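Example record for the data management plan.
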Amino acid sequence: MRPAFGRVTLRPLDELTDTDWRRLQSHFRDPEIAYLNGTPPNRMPLWLLKRLLKTDTRRPDRATFGIFDERGDFIGTTELYDVRGDVATLGIIIGERTHWSAGYGPEAMHALLAYAFDALGLEVVRLETFGDNLRAQRAFRKVGFQEVDRRVDANGRIDVRMELLRERWRQLRSESAPSASGPDLAERSA
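Corresponding structural encoding:
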């Protein structure tokens, strides 16, 4: 399955090329991306990173995808993790700086959320981000996430917890459906 929305298509990690894997590794090594994710830059060799991520994709509580733009270029990753019953947590990294603040994150989330709510039948998708990651918060709000809590973590950073309920997702999707005379920007499947 290749969920898609707008300019992006999500592909399973099994479909990544060697070039895509090297880009993914560079995203994980980027100090700014690492800071925004609350982790140190990853220094793992590529062979080990591939092995660990591919092993993770076999877990029943996880669905991980590469994000590809309209030209078919790998630009990041997104996933549902801690899938338990009808609840999951969303994670996303747009690693290509040329694609930051250009709407690719919300489009990738739309594709992943359609998969979460329609294909998996989830009721709630949650996420956490840091209070100083305003760009991410704007993107999350753009697709319908609402803030439910803020807490200070052990390192003094503010954790912002957000969630999106399936009913809200469906309501927002029906409100934003293109009119019969308007352009067809609705979801597509690749």
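Summary line stored alongside the record: The chain has one domain: 3-178.
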